[in-house]
Design goal:
Blueprint (H helix, E strand, L loop, with lengths): L1 E4 H4 L2 H13 L4 E4 L5 H14 L18 E3 L2 E3 L2 E3 L8 E4 L6
Parallel strand pairs: 1-2
Antiparallel strand pairs: 3-6, 4-5
Helix pairs in contact: 2-3
Length: 100
Amino acid sequence: MVNIKLAKCGGLGPARTLLSLAEEHGMGTIVGSMMESPVGVGAAASLVAAYGTTAVSDLDAAWWLAASPVRGGIRYDGAMVELADAPGLGVSAVIGGNDT
């Protein structure tokens, strides 16, 4: 099984390539996370939503944060990651930035 992490492979493009290569070679896939913010986890969750994996992905990194550094983006509903219903990753502002 291949555990693809955006922070280690270089982003969404390389991650998609890795998912395709793993599928071509009959390998299982999972998308994991390091200690990304909701922005990084949102990108990883969007990849999983668009292309899928063969096992449940590990996208709990942002859940461990005491507070989100952004407004908008993903939400956790128990063990589920919910993508924002907004353009892009759904982030509308950086908390502590000019739009607070």
